[in-house]
Amino acid sequence: MNDDIWGLPGARVSPPLPGLESFTRTPLALLLQQAAARAPAAVALVGAEGGLDFATLHRQAMQVAAAVAALLPPGAPLACLLPQRPDGFAALLGALMSGRVCLVLNPREPAERLAALLADAAPAALLLGAPLAAAPALPRLLLDDILAGPPRDFTLDHPWNPDAPMAVHYTSGSSGLPKGIVLSARSVLARTLEVMTYLRLGPADAMMAASQPSTSPGVTHPLAALLAGGRAVLTNIAVDGASAFLRLAGREGVTCASCGPSLLRMMLHLESARAAFRQLRMMRIGNSAILTAELAAWRQVLPPGCEVQHTYASTEALAMAQWLVPQGLAEAGTVLAAGLAEATHRMALLDEAGHPVASGEAGELVLSGPLLALGEWQGGRLVPGRLVPEPGRPGWRRFHTGDLLRVQPDGLLRVVGRADRQVKINGVRVEPAEVEAVLLAEPGVTDATLVALARPTGTVLVGFVVAPGLEEAVLFAALRRRLAAALPAAFRPSRLHLLPVLPRMSAGGKLDRQALERLAAE
Question: Which residue among 254, 334, 358, 482 is least packed, with the fewest CB closer than 10 Å?
Fold first, then answer.
């Protein structure tokens, strides 16, 4: 791929992250030590049942790092199955700073899936928060045993390499098969600095994210708060639910929160949301299609002046675009733009032949740079996967996102769909995201998606909606009127289904498209 294809003509670009190079070269152990030294008695991590100050956090992380280093050589893979609570996150930080490859897994995964993940990950040892029935017969460290022992100092037992593998996070692709995405220490710290910078985190902040540590944001968002000297508020949203999330947010006076649109849609209808967010100054919303009218409704719950940051990101890359959404943006029926392009990677929008698209046209977003994920973890080792080395640039990778984007006239990037989801109906190219946006625009609909089924007579579109408290016949009649008014005939689903909730993968909340296809075929 030639150098002259890179660039997004007409796109506005965010300023480079300040201090990126020096920050991402610094060992995590040193960054954590510096944060603890600034305010050792200040609360660092807090959960529903207690918290840790910075001195205790640092001590526990050091104990775990020393125990891991005594068990495994540098660079060996360690499966981390830890609880979403302060001592569990401290232990994860200890494992990450030890210089071993941390396979970050969710111990609450279904037993069959967890066993399959462990079999593919092929760890050399396990770090467990509690005994695990599905765990393979491997050397193991139990968190309670480590913390019950005397304090131990940890000194890195090998030269720090910021480009070595640090963390592996498993994502669920559209096929439903999990992929282990391998992040270098440099990439983890770049993601952390990005959160610190855009959320303007400081010692007075309490940061709360809905993500679990088994996902990349579940590590970098709390870590950003800690390294900025603030508090990280931990909650297990998948277990405790939205009401518990709000109770904890209100109790801790959360100032910055990171949530997905589906969680916000649930919380919008809870009476406690307004009081829980009373001190919020920044809400970070990630990735999924968000209607501007929907955002206007959320602003009625958020405090006056609370800023809303929208990000477009992936596990393989940093935030690829972001922006602070203006207060008055509420044109009904439109979807938020992705935002300003990030300066972290080289970017291009390419057509199917690999050529740059014309101004204003949509193309697949392709990235290149040293901060992308290193590759994928398969069969117990690092392989390139979809992140291929870039010839002539040592340490750089190239990544085809599969997302279709275009540059708007105002310079913002807009996601228009997925290259692998586009379908043709009677010769007409249909982008499911456009149909989903219309379904979501109907009052009372809190979630929606579209499935395309291949049939001998052609492709059939089937829509799924979630609309608590609405009667099916009335809802479907309203949806069909809205679809007819907004979309050509080829875009309209032939069937609609009302579900209490859309099926999702437990790992990161992605839609379980295999389950949806089974429902659509019934």
Answer: 358
